[in-house]
Structure formats: structure tokens, C-alpha cells
Write a structure and sequence with these properties.
Strand content: under 5%
Number of domains: 2
Number of helices: 9
Distance between the termini: 46 Å
Helix content: 55-70%
Low-confidence stretches: 112-117, 125-135
């Protein structure tokens, strides 16, 4: 055994429920505002239908509940509490969107009649498409767009499946989808530059396999 070898750092320890409660109580108004904005943006990104009409506030509550129940572990040594919660919020929103995609025909996602019908001044039901403009595109253009969207969806689904077990890579990918650059993603999730670059290299390696 090499006596001069540096001792290994102990594994990061997950926070206790008491520590999480303390961290929640220590959130500043700025922290709360940031979390609310992130949650609101996530709901907009996935759509209210995918969120099953849940709000940004519901998303934050679910993130805190999972953290308190230990379903999502926060290791203070690895990340500050707010970036950790941001990551949980993003992950849950992605989970909601994926669930709807897999269960789009489920009654759970059926739109209430009151949400899809309108009434005129006399109380008569109108088509939910009433008032919408006729598309300017001709049929051929619409078919080409639909085909392109279908191909993009297949690719997006493949990428999502590839990284579904890689949480950090998922965060980076979602950040890119939101138009965030490297420094912003690093700040949002508490990555240092070295870690971020390693994640990007990992993503690129796997994307080459998918595309090729």
C-alpha cells in the first residue's frame, strides 16, 4: 500500500430532512423569485396540457416534497440548494411532459368540455376553432412541414431516451433548448467549467452515435 497516497474523499452525504427544511426556510425573496420564474418557464415550455393544468407553484411544491421525502437527494457538498431545486423542477417538468407523450389518449389528459367549447352571445355552442385564421400555407407546404416535424420528433425522442439516466446531461440539453449558453447553465446548476465541459463531451459522443 502506498503510504504517501492521498486519502480518498468521503462520499457526499445526502442532507437530512431537518437540513432540507432549514434550507427551505432560509430561501431569500430573490431565491423564491428565481424558483418561481424557472417553474413558470418550465410550464410554458412543456405546455399546460402536458402539465395536466398544474401550475408553476404546483411544480415547486412537488420538487420540495420529493426532496423532503428523499425521492430526490440533495448533497450540500455537491450543490447549493437553489441550483439543486432548479434541477429537480426541470426534471419533474420533463417527466410530466414524457408521461403525457406516452399516455396522450388517457382520460387523465382529456380536456374539459368547458375548456374546448365557446358560446356566442345567445348561448349557442361554437366550434373551438371559430375565429382562427386559415393557414397561409398550401397543402404541399403543410405536408413538408409535418414530415420535417415528425423527423425532428423521432430524433428528439432518441436523444431523450439516450440521456434519461444521465441527469446532468439532461439539464445541459434542456438548457440548450431554452437558449441558454454555457456560463448561464453553469450558474443555473452549479457546475464548474471543468464539469460542464466533461458533460458536453459526453453528450457529443453519444449524439454522434445517434445521428450516425
Amino acid at each position: 500500500m502506498d503510504q504517501d497516497a492521498a486519502p480518498k474523499a468521503p462520499p457526499a452525504k445526502a442532507a437530512t430532512q431537518a437540513e432540507i427544511i432549514q434550507a427551505i426556510e432560509a430561501l431569500t425573496p430573490e431565491d423564491t423569485e428565481r424558483l418561481e420564474q424557472v417553474a413558470k418557464n418550465r410550464i410554458i415550455r412543456i405546455g399546460r396540457r402536458a402539465a395536466n393544468l398544474r401550475t408553476g407553484e404546483d411544480l415547486i411544491q412537488e420538487a420540495m416534497t420529493r426532496s423532503l421525502e428523499g425521492r430526490r437527494e440533495w448533497c450540500p457538498q455537491n450543490a447549493k440548494f437553489v441550483p439543486f431545486l432548479v434541477g429537480v423542477i426541470w426534471s419533474i417538468a420533463s417527466e410530466w411532459a414524457g408521461h403525457r407523450k406516452r399516455n396522450v389518449d388517457s382520460p387523465e389528459y382529456a380536456v374539459a368540455e368547458s375548456q374546448i367549447t365557446k358560446e356566442d352571445e345567445e348561448g349557442n355552442a361554437l366550434s373551438p376553432f371559430a375565429g382562427l385564421k386559415t393557414p397561409d400555407q398550401n397543402i404541399e407546404d403543410q405536408m413538408i412541414d409535418a414530415e420535417n416535424q415528425a423527423e425532428q420528433k423521432v430524433l428528439a425522442d432518441s436523444i431523450e431516451r439516450c440521456f434519461e439516466q444521465d441527469e446532468n446531461a439532461s439539464y445541459v440539453l434542456m438548457g440548450w433548448q431554452d437558449g441558454m449558453d454555457g456560463p448561464r447553465i453553469q450558474k443555473e446548476f452549479g457546475f464548474n467549467e471543468k464539469t460542464y465541459r466533461a458533460i458536453v463531451r459526453r453528450i457529443k459522443r453519444n449524439l454522434r452515435k445517434i445521428i450516425n
